[in-house]
Amino acid sequence: MNVPATLSPGVVEGLETTWSLAAVNASSAPTEGEEAASSDGPGTAGMVTIQCIYALVCLLGLVGNALVIFVILRYAKMKTATNIYLLNLAIADELFMLSVPFVASSAALRHWPFGSVLCRAVLSVDGLNMFTSVFCLTVLSVDRYVAVVHPLRAATYRRPSVAKLINLGVWLASLLVTLPIAVFADTKPARGGRAVACNLHWPHPAWSAVFVIYTFLLGFLLPVLAIGLCYLLIVGKMRAVALRAGWQQRRRSEKKITRLVLMVVAVFVLCWMPFYVVQLLNLFVTSLNATINHVSLILSYANSCANPILYGFLSDNFRRSFQRVLCLRCCLLDVAGGAEEEPLDYYATALKSRAGAGCICPPLPCQQQPMPAEPSPKPIPLTGTTTF
Asked: What residue intervals traverse the membrane (predicted)?
């Protein structure tokens, strides 16, 4: 933010919210203080480092999330209720990565050269991903709660068809809460007319503070509290029935996927908390160091490339599917191993029962094996004794 929420008379009527580095690097400042303000940002070496980090984050995010989307859509075994929610999260992260080149260019130029339409589009996509990601994680946590605490109801509610409808609701809710960004995002001359800033421009100064609190509550605090409550109930349930007959085997498989979702949530909190802290600080600090804004936003983008890495390390099914797509260690994929990741998913269980215990993923061209030659018929003996 460029000015505080409470303004003295004579200050500009419209208040700008620096929602991304497009705003941070081209934000307006008093003409006499432009040189001093520019010294607060990173130097040439620091900017080169930032651009390299952006390039790495964008590459990993695009490739990793595309891989997640591909394996879930291609392989029948991956079409579980939980993975459908992860698919939704990967789609949101993939869209989020498409805005990184624009933000990185603006960071390097300290100017927004892409026009008003792209300004509104980039900021809207950023906000849409922010809300969609946290809503997806909330739904994932509720899904884990139903699977562990209410296992009898899980077979009814935890189906891919239900998950798709919930994902549609997540996108609609995210679009609704992102409307203020789409309406008020626009470009404006900055730095004495020598640059263009892509900011959120409000008709009244108080709207900026309201918007920051609004996004903090809906996009972070309330969802994280709901997620924490779900996991408290899950832990209580696991401890209460840990010694019950038949629970141990199911508990191992449930624990794996619950740990995966919990790690995804933890990384989300670590990556997005600095962003919201900076947004709240901007309400009270008029000249926050630009490097702090850089770091907070880079961390928020890094969250989108971290999720596929977590899936590969923590999920056996994702790891095997990634290896199959990348043609790595293909021989390991012919052996069924490990506990079923989604034992309560009716759809996945039914598919497995029809196809047998082996891997039901269709092979890729790199894994095609030649057809074995038909065995030659046994020779018929010319003489012999027949015993009845």
From this structure: 48-73, 85-108, 128-147, 168-185, 205-236, 257-275, 295-314
Tokens of 355: 């196809």
- Residues in contact with 134: Cβ distance below 8 Å, sequence separation at least 6, in sequence order: 219, 220, 223, 224, 268, 272
CATH of the domain at 126: 1.20.1070.10
Give tens-digit pLDDT for 118-134.
Answer: 999 999 998 998 899 99
The pLDDT value recorded for residue 251 is 61
Cα 307 from Cα 263, distance rounded (Å): 9
The secondary structure of residue 150, as a DSSP letter, is -
Confidence (pTM):
0.76
Instruction: Show the tokens assigned to 44.
Output: 């040439």
Show the domain range for 248.
15-325
Does any domain span residue 339?
Answer: no
User: Is 3 domain-assigned?
Assistant: no
Would residue 127 count as lying in a domain? yes
Cα distance between residue 84 and residue 64, in whole Å = 16
Task: Give the containing element (helix H, strand E) for 41.
Answer: none
d(CA 164, CA 160): 6
User: Domain count of the chain?
Assistant: 1
In a domain, 376, yes or no: no
Other CB atoms within 10 A of residue 120 CB: 19
pLDDT bucket at 322, cuts 50 / 70 / 90: confident
Render pLDDT for 48-93 as a digit per residue (tens, 0 to 9).
888 999 999 999 999 999 999 999 998 888 888 889 999 999 999 9
